């Protein structure tokens, strides 16, 4: 079975690298991206099994990026945002996101089930992360 390849998309370098490092330490190939151009370059370079996409990306909008990606890609997308009102979550789901995780969060909630991933038989199941690996200190960062 191939090692799952994930994109970690965030405009904040520290947050992006911290989550990338956490995922790598737990057996995933995690590739950092800061923009839609980075995402498209990584998709063009090879298989991507999951995208963790921040909603507020400086000059870019993760929900809009998700909509554009959905036009030509079927890769699972989890939106991550400090925007957690019901209408904001619904906009994320309507854009084609498979899940929407509100900040702050600990990496372990990323292990929750994604029905579309499971139905498609995708190889990415973050639930395989060790339960007691330790918490990543993301609660104060804009992830």
Number of helices: 5
Rg measurement, Å: 14 Å
Which descriptor suits the 3D outline?
globular
Strand order of the largest sheet: 2-1-3-6-7
Percentage of residues in helical conformation: 25-40%
Distance between the termini: 29 Å
Element order: H for helix, E for strand: EHEHEEEHEHEH
Number of DSSP E strands? 7
Question: What's the pLDDT, averaged over the residues?
Answer: 78
Residue share in β-strands: 15-25%
Q: Mind summarizing the main beta sheet? A: 5 strands, parallel
Structural class: alpha/beta
Summarize the structure.
The protein is α/β, with parallel strands linked by helices.
Which features would summarize this protein structure in a list?
7 strands; two-stranded antiparallel sheet; globular; alpha/beta
SSE layout and pairing:
Blueprint: E1 5-9, H1 13-25, E2 29-33, H2 36-45, E3 50-54, E4 56-57, E5 60-61, H3 62-70, E6 77-81, H4 86-94, E7 99-102, H5 115-120
Parallel strand pairs: 1-2, 1-3, 3-6, 6-7
Antiparallel strand pairs: 4-5
Q: Can you walk through the features of this model?
A:
- Residues 111-115, 117-125 and 128-143 have low confidence and may be disordered.
- A 5-stranded parallel β-sheet has the order 2-1-3-6-7, with helices on both faces. A two-stranded antiparallel ribbon has the order 4-5.
- It is 33% helix and 20% strand.
- The longest helix has 13 residues, at 13-25.
- The protein has helices at residues 13-25, 36-45, 62-70, 86-94, 115-120; strands at 5-9, 29-33, 50-54, 56-57, 60-61, 77-81, 99-102.
- With 143 residues, the chain is an alpha/beta fold.
- The protein contains 5 helices and 7 strands.
